[in-house]
């Protein structure tokens, strides 16, 4: 039986790498003091729009010990999704993260494998896996764990591989050796702020979610606001503009996760194909994709908005 925090941490990071994660960082499970006033201000300004779930579990979002009883450590993990091929130029656009299988399922499987490994190697360790759908501030934990810094577009950034990756966590009741936050390398650059067509980045490091193209095309269930006509730049599901223009993303490397490879028909679909997409084709192409979240009717609504 191992009994050394540094050794525990090293074997967890080695297994995370073996499972295909880009990187792994570890933080002490404790109240996120710096994030509390930021989150409160963001919510008070209604920057969550219709994402009312962001108002729920305020305390749990800031304190992992309320999510997992007796938790000691937050193990943050990054999984690359940057594709080797992109959609054809004559197409309405999908966020690159949605090209392949729904990341929730892919990552959850890997996280569970990691938790079982920890239990097998170390002993009686309890915890939970989190992928984007629970009240956990993923980016804050990843930054605290030294995996990158939160950029002016509010995404996690690293000097080595940019920002095209998913963030997930294991919150466990095992004490480990903790990593430290890294430094901010955005400097005076404002490319993401300047490029956002809906002015969603209201100031450096603050994104008004209710103005974001991703919010409009995925989260908003009502009619799209006419005031934003002509500003979506052909994005029909999500938006990658602030990441695409970021200088650090010139270091993005293609992922090697087969489940993130796009459906064979997806990359060649033209605007004409999207205009004529049937529900059967939607189900076939997006059978296992995160795009299902917006449903066929939602995607058609978005495409119609782009054409008007």
Describe how the helices and strands are arranged:
Layout: H1 5-18, E1 23-28, H2 35-44, H3 58-62, E2 73-80, E3 93-94, H4 103-122, E4 127-130, H5 138-144, E5 149-150, E6 156-157, E7 165-172, H6 191-195, E8 201-203, E9 206-207, H7 213-219, E10 235-237, H8 241-244, H9 271-275, H10 279-285, H11 295-307
Name of the CATH first level of the largest domain: Alpha Beta
Class of secondary structure makeup: alpha+beta
Domain module tally: 2
Instruction: Going across the biggest sheet, name each strand in turn.
Output: 1-2-7-4
Helix content: 25-40%
First-residue to last-residue Cα separation: 65 Å
Strand content: 5-15%
Order of helices and strands: HEHHEEHEHEEEHEEHEHHHH
Overall 3D geometry? globular
* Global mean pLDDT: 95
Query: Would you identify the regions where 5 or more consecutive residues have pLDDT less than 50?
Result: none
Per DSSP E runs of 2 or more residues, the count of β-strands stands at 10
Q: Biggest sheet, in brief? A: 4 strands, antiparallel
- Rg is 20 Å
Polypeptide structure, described:
It is built from eleven helices and ten strands. The chain is an alpha+beta fold and 308 residues long. It has two domains: 5-83 and 101-172, NADH Oxidase, CATH 3.40.109; 191-253 and 261-307, no CATH class. It has a four-stranded antiparallel β-sheet, with helices on both faces. It has a two-stranded parallel sheet with strand order 3-10. Strands 5-6 form a two-stranded antiparallel ribbon. Strand 5 and strand 6 form a beta hairpin.
């Amino acid at each position: 039986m191992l009994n050394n925090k540094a050794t525990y941490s090293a074997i967890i990071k080695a297994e995370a790498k073996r499972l295909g994660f880009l990187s792994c960082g570890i933080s002490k499970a404790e109240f996120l003091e710096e994030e509390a006033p930021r989150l409160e201000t963001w919510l008070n300004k209604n920057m969550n729009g219709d994402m009312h779930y962001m108002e729920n579990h305020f305390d749990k979002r800031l304190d992992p010990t309320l999510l997992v009883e007796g938790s000691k450590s937050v193990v943050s993990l990054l999984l690359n999704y940057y594709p080797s091929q992109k959609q054809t130029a004559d197409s309405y656009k999908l966020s690159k993260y949605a090209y392949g299988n729904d990341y929730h399922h892919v990552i959850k499987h890997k996280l569970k494998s990691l938790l079982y490994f920890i239990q097998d190697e170390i002993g009686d360790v309890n915890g939970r896996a989190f992928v984007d759908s629970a009240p956990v501030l993923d980016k804050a934990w990843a930054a605290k764990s030294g995996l990158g810094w939160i950029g002016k577009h509010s995404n996690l950034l690293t000097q080595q591989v940019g920002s095209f990756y998913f963030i997930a966590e294991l919150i466990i009741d095992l004490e480990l050796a903790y990593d430290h936050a890294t430094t901010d390398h955005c400097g005076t650059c404002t490319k993401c702020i300047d490029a956002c067509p809906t002015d969603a980045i209201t100031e450096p490091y603050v994104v008004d979610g209710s103005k974001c193209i991703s919010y409009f095309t995925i989260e908003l269930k009502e009619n799209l606001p006419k005031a934003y006509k002509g500003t979506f730049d052909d994005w029909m599901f999500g938006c990658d503009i602030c990441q695409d223009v970021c200088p650090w993303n010139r270091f993005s490397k293609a992922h090697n996760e087969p489940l993130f490879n796009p459906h064979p028909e997806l990359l060649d679909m033209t605007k004409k194909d999207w205009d004529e997409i049937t529900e059967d084709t939607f189900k076939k192409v997006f059978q296992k994709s995160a795009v299902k979240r917006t449903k066929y009717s939602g995607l058609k609504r978005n495409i119609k908005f782009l054409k008007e």
